[in-house]
Design a protein that fits this description.
Helix content is about 55%, strand content about 10%. By secondary structure, it is mostly helical.
Amino acid sequence: MRELKELEIHVNTFYEAIDSVVTKSLPEHGSPEDRGSADAYYQSPRDPHYWQGPPLAGIRVPASMMTQAQIDSYNTAYFDEKDRKDYG
């Protein structure tokens, strides 16, 4: 019974660690980082922007209304994204 309890603790710790890694590594949906990465993945032209508000119901904020730090975040994510959608 003790071994089962120890195993349960290890399994729970493992899943908590995985959840932590996954959620900490993903940018907030709609953020400049998220949009830059998505544009690169879908092979869209580089066009710094982000979405403010809820997904699919928010407001698109263009580069002309972004701070330099936000544009830099978009560009970094755009150029760092290595995966590409295969439309084949």
